[in-house]
Amino acid sequence: MENQLNSENPAKESAFDAPSEPGVYLMKNEDSQIIYIGKAKSLKNRLKSYFSGEKDIKTATLLKYVHSIETIIVASEYDALLLENTLIKQHSPKYNISLKDGKTYPVIRITHEEFPRVFRTRRIIQDKSIYYGPYADAHAVNTIMELIDKIFPLRKCKKIKKNVPMGSLPRAPCMYYHIGRCMAPCCGKINMEDYAVHVQHVQKLLSGEKSSLIIELTAKMHEEARALQFEKAAFIRNTINAIENLQSGFVEDLNPENRDYIAWACEGVFISITVFSMRGGKMTGRDLFRTRCAANEQETLEQFITSYYDNNRHPPLKIFFQDFTLQSGEENKQLLKNWFKEQFGYTPEILSAKDKHHKAILSMAHLNAQEDLRKRMKERGAGPALDEITRIFNLQTRPERIEGFDISHLGGRHPVASLVSFKNGTADRKNYRHFKLRTVIGITDDYAAMREAVRRRYSRLIREGATLGATLPDMILVDGGLGQVNAAKGVLDELGVNIFIVGLAKRNEELWLPEAKKPVILSRQSEALKVLQNIRDECHRFASNLNTRLRSKDLFFTTLESVEGIGPKRAGAIMKEYESIADIAASKPHEMSKRCRISEEAARAVRAVAKLSLETI
């Protein structure tokens, strides 16, 4: 096919190596011109879809001209939508819809009055009103406004007459007061101080201070579910989702001040620096720079600043850094101020992030720098790190195949072990394994758990090696200290297997060899340590995921038993018959009734509980 791309195509390689986080992707042609901008909940999944399966004519035409792909990671799909909209308007890519209508997203306004009103609007007026947003999901805004009306019923009428004697107030409040949707300040039913308390609660909710409200609503939702009031429970669930999703994104924040946010990630001499630019309350771009530098962090940043800002790129009045490093030396900071003054005639503020909003923007900038650094290190390969491991431990050959073990449980319940496999420093997921441990159920014994997992893994590999040609790894990494290492080494000795084994203890990142009297301590900048930490962390993630699924299944039993007519035995029988909560939620009541010997009414209730549980797990 004319648009067929081989595996060496840089755009395809970028797609398959994209991060899994939400964000925006920019497709560029050979001249580095942006020809298409898109958003995705998962950048990796969306970009991979361009190069998988059949393609329609539009996609095939686009891919013919795509030479490279850049990504910008953001906090949520909502932020991706806002940023996509801004960048399309800014760059007008050839293959995007032309957006010239100046579309604005809704905001929530709290008026600057003695008895403020709260309402949704798309118009911003500079009259000291407080605005929250913008919000991409208009349905979520409507839901949250309905919630505010119910919990904090502020006034609806547009005007209240000032300095009017109490006898001149309306004789009776309007309908909104009688249905509980207004406190009737126009009739003197509430004074200004008490009314202000309710306004402050609304401000906290819209500012993101909503944890206590979500906890309260979640408890109420489960209470309604146990009472089989599933419609009420579903309404509360939707309200919780609206509260969680109603977040003002960092890519648009209604703050008109021009600002830059500078963050970086480094490993050895490799440094990736990200700059997020906010102009007129919107993020207008992201610059990403790669460099190598042997100077310390402060000197590197000073060199970057004096190179980045020039006559074609003037600094804004405020520059935020992920760490206030430049303030560590007042003399150096003054030199930088003098440079700004000499070059541009003014001195911008150099700031650290103190409030939550600025910290969120810097966090995303840092995440983008980390992602670029990850790609750089992957391009470089793990060879130097594996060579370092070989030297440190005086191994005969480079450990190209490393397997890692971790144990996860909750007070002895649901004990599981995970095994991850890395080949040449890269995860080999097809060789990942889970072990539901049998010998440590109900007890907490990490050493016994490690012995069981290692024995089961390598006794099987020995058997398969004799018949199927299975091979043993070059190195084993266990998550833990000397005790876990000795436990695993004892099993290997019993099996007659000679594999180099080391433990990585989390507390001080110490490396332990069997029967060692003291650990091996590597520099935190060591590439060898970075590789081993990556294996350890991946192993922990893999173990925790299974443990979490098992615990959520366990918690479902309690909810299931709340259904009338379903006791512990029937709950166990249902779970045995269907195995997973998802299977129960997808079942048909008449089928469940026959398979589990319960009434159809009970089956419908069980299915409803399962559906609700899937939404809240």
Query: Ends: how far apart?
Result: 45 Å
Quick one: biggest sheet? 7 strands, mixed
Number of helices, counting only DSSP H or I runs of 4 residues or more? 20
Q: Given the helix and strand composition, which structural class is it?
A: alpha+beta
Strand content: 15-25%
Task: Count every beta strand, where a strand is a DSSP E run of 2 or more residues.
Answer: 18
Rg over CA atoms, rounded to whole Å, is 30 Å
Shape: globular
What is the residue-averaged pLDDT? 81
Helical fraction: 40-55%
Ranges with pLDDT <50 over ≥5 residues?
1-7
List keywords for this structure.
single chain, 617 residues, alpha+beta, 7-stranded mixed sheet, 5-stranded mixed sheet, 18% strand, disordered N terminus
Written account of the structure:
There is one protein chain. The chain is built from 20 helices and 18 strands. It is an alpha+beta fold and 617 residues long. The radius of gyration is 30 Å and the shape is globular.
Concise description?
This protein has 617 residues and is an alpha+beta fold. It contains 20 helices and 18 strands.
SSE diagram, text form:
Blueprint: H1 10-16, E1 23-28, E2 34-40, H2 43-50, H3 57-65, E3 68-73, H4 77-91, E4 107-110, E5 118-121, E6 130-132, H5 138-151, H6 175-178, H7 192-206, H8 211-226, H9 230-245, E7 259-267, E8 270-279, E9 282-292, H10 297-308, E10 318-321, H11 330-344, E11 349-352, H12 356-380, H13 383-392, E12 401-410, E13 413-423, E14 426-427, E15 433-436, H14 446-467, E16 475-479, H15 482-495, E17 500-505, E18 510-512, H16 527-560, H17 568-578, H18 581-585, H19 589-596, H20 600-616
Helix pairs in contact: 1-2, 5-9, 8-9, 9-20, 13-16, 14-15, 19-20
